[in-house]
Write a structure and sequence with these properties.
By secondary structure, this protein is mostly helical. It is 82% helix and 0% strand. It has helices spanning 2-15, 23-28, 30-91, 103-106, 114-120, 122-127, 130-149, 151-172, 178-205.
Length: 206
């Protein structure tokens, strides 16, 4: 922002030298005025160049973050689809079949390890929205816990994680505002809390 404001201020200062009221002063101090105008022109050029470079870097970083988000979504999708197939296979095993015993211990659903690496990248922590960053860290904890003891909950958290990443992607692409992003993340948060409470109640009643 400062690289835009300063050139405007310097340009306005330089414009005063063209006003008729200052003609006499300018003629008496032509050397100093010319030096001043040259200095302004050089400064404006440098500041504008810095501004353009910063803008291009920001756009490149945003583009890179979008690519990383797409990779993260793909990783979660693969884990979700495979986990869903595992659950479907398990549900089709007849009751009483020994294959059902310790099925998920022997055939654990895949875990999206990419997400951990995704969050560790500086470009991600720097450019991701604060709401998504906090919530994604929370989801990683929930994924680790549910992966160990409840495959149905794990599948649900995977689904919520995918939705969160898709919301951040839409935000990075300018399709939704930050306010809309925060509101939709709140909806995901409530949905996960209700699901967790429901599973906890079912376990208590068993």
């Amino acid at each position: 922002m400062i690289y835009i404001v300063l050139p405007l201020i310097l340009t306005l200062l330089g414009a005063f030298t063209f006003l008729p009221q200052f003609k006499g002063v300018i003629e008496r101090n032509s050397i100093g005025i010319n030096f001043f105008l040259t200095l302004i022109a050089t400064s404006v050029g440098v500041l504008l160049a810095i501004s353009v470079t910063n803008y291009e870097n920001e756009q490149k970083e945003r583009h890179d973050v979008i690519k990383l988000l797409n990779s993260a979504i793909t990783s979660v999708n693969i884990c979700y689809d495979y986990s869903e197939e595992l659950i479907e296979y398990f549900d089709n095993i007849p009751q009483g079949d020994e294959l059902r015993n310790h099925f998920f211990e022997n055939n654990p659903p895949p875990y999206p390890d990419y997400l951990g690496n995704f969050l560790m990248q500086n470009i991600v922590s720097k450019n991701l929205s604060g709401s998504t960053l906090n919530k994604l860290n929370e989801y990683l904890i929930n994924l680790e816990r549910s992966h160990a003891y409840d495959v149905q909950l794990y599948l649900y958290v995977l689904e919520q994680t995918k939705k969160l990443l898709e919301l951040e992607l839409a935000f990075q692409e300018g399709k939704i505002t930050e306010e809309q992003l925060v509101n939709r993340i709140d909806i995901l948060k409530k949905s996960l809390r209700l699901k967790t409470e429901s599973i906890s109640n079912n376990l208590t009643n068993q």
